[in-house]
């Protein structure tokens, strides 16, 4: 929670605010516009001005509203303090006026931007802008009083001492002129004014000091007069709120010399009337100015009067001091701090929530006994026999610490880790083991079972030798040639297979080129023939067939043909392997005429529309003259 | 320990404890003495917007000063400024007929007054208005998929559209009155009381430009509108509460974004 408000931005006066925002608009928006411009541009120009000004105002107001604390969100102490100092309602109304002005300005800007969208001329747009800014200015001018008030509040709020309501606090209160400020001056470094007249202190002052390495704050309050709270003025109310809201030790100051101008009876009366505020607080009555008059020198009735104050409440104590002579000041302070700490701890313990928080997390389970047998904890005998370790006992156990002492103490003695090794033979413990042998790490070649393995191998070898496994035999000469022949053939087959695989791979490898579909690859008849030959087929029938086809397909000219087929397809000599696509699959003349008719029918529609077909090839000029000649004007290079 | 931050009225306290700097009074006196020079320098050197602001401020100050001087001088003049009436002292003869007006003169003036009043019935605060051409009043809106048709019009002035008005189907609508430019209320000034009230408009009585505009409810300078004055609590001679009253528009609504009118009483 915020305790100080030192960085609230300054609140300008309404006139200044107007100047700031309008100036900004003038500086940060374009200024040149002419009637000859497009109307959309003129509208945008003025709309921008209106919007920009409105935004400027909104921003300022937002900062203002955000900077001031919300009086309902602060600590009750600060809330009441602000209420007495600044009048809560006035404060709220002022902030509300600012926020209302903000919404009004937003509304004006919206309205006029809408009207500007229908602006017909530069003059009209300008007038509309003028009207909009004028209305905003009127709204701001009406904020004159709230802004002036808020500026004052800001200044005062920034100078308020930073009082933390939750920290350790000593609160000094009492009648005016009883020596409260001088006590604060004695115990802290606070620069408080001390004057020999009543109401020198008109507001709360804070000083800090340390006690038992803890930071305490001491608060000096203005004097209180004994009258009903409704009649109290703002200065006294500050003290009342401090007493009411701060968790603290209250030091009630009294002046029994009556130099302050108030009698002892009055001071006792005031104590009793503000007593209800001391609930849940530790209270210390401090009798000041003992240098002038000691309490022992008082008449008996008056002493009784003072003693009466602490009756009925054992926690209240009376102490005496003299700030003038700085006598007993520190004892009073320390006593108050002790009381405060004690009461704070007490309150902490009282709060059940904290204890419960821990208790909720703990659960001790006790199983219900199933029979009467006692099951006691098992303690090993060795542990039982162990005598309790005692430093003074001469026969005590020897600890690692003792060994260290014997061998030169810390820093000299080095613990021998080898002592704790678990090995087969105790003697091996201290052996030195080479880490590197012949440039090799020994541990890489360690095998714990090497002896057993070697044993097993040797036994196996002996057994094999005994069985005659290693005896040589020379009786496979006869089968030798046959086997060699088979091996040769197998080798040839393997080679052939490898070659085929390689050639297939070569074929398939793209090698930066496209693959042709198999159907589109042309292979000459010679290639086919060769291939079949290599496979061992007889190709003579194929060759015969080919020759027959060639002779059959050759066009034989006759007189009748020449007369008949003048407009028909030209019988140019075609290569034998190309198919005649015009006549393929056409068995007789009737079919021929039918296909002709169909083709014509299909072409008719396309010709009628005169579409550009795939056959219509056209190469455009690479340097079109009309695009690259003549002078260049305003147009672009590609459109002229 | 960190030194404490100043608290509460530390400035006043400091002055109380240590006093002001020794030459404070002298500096103050000198500053006041130099003020005239500073103003003269500002008046000569400030340019542009700041110069304008300065001049305005200076003008206001001068007016206030002159008024003050005048009031001061008047207070110094001994005796009442106007001669007391009916102080039961005999007046000299040459002063006698100054107070009483001639009866004949009175009659003639009363006749003149009556004539004026009769003419007044038909007079309005703004008797003449600027003519507005159709080009200014209407904006042609092109329609059709090729934007080739131009029979639609949009009114560019502010209009009053009655409460129960429903637009024709968009396709048929010849004249568009944009919603953004519709006005429902007007700032009406009562000329005698000198107060201005924001009143709802009831109807457009007459637009001096053209009867067609009256029909369409166009609000231009000089248009007579009917406003709802029930808020003002006016009473007729017969004792009835007046509901509607005529008012004349005194500004160009399309330039100010609002309607200002003066009540015709």
How would you summarize the topology of this molecule?
The complex is a heterodimer of chains A (640) and B (265).
Chain A lengths: L13 H15 L10 H29 L8 H11 L1 H29 L5 H20 L2 H16 L9 E6 L5 H8 L17 E7 L2 E7 L13 H12 L3 E7 L8 H10 L8 E7 L11 H10 L7 E4 L8 H22 L1 H8 L21 H5 L14 H7 L29 E2 L2 E2 L8 H18 L12 H29 L16 H11 L4 H14 L5 H6 L24 H21 L15 H4 L12
Parallel strand pairs in A: 1-3, 1-4, 4-5, 5-6
Antiparallel strand pairs in A: 2-3, 7-8
Helix pairs in contact in A: 1-2, 2-4, 2-5, 3-4, 3-8, 4-5, 4-6, 9-10
Chain B lengths: L9 H9 L5 H22 L2 H29 L16 H4 L6 H20 L11 H4 E6 L5 E7 L19 E2 L8 E6 L4 E12 L4 H6 L7 E5 L15 E6 L3 H4 L3 E4 L2
How far apart the termini of chain A lie comes to 72 Å
How can the largest sheet of chain A be summarized? 6 strands, mixed
Q: Number of helical segments of chain B?
A: 8
The largest sheet of chain B is: 5 strands, mixed, barrel
Strands of the largest sheet of chain A, in order across it? 2-3-1-4-5-6
Shape of chain B: extended
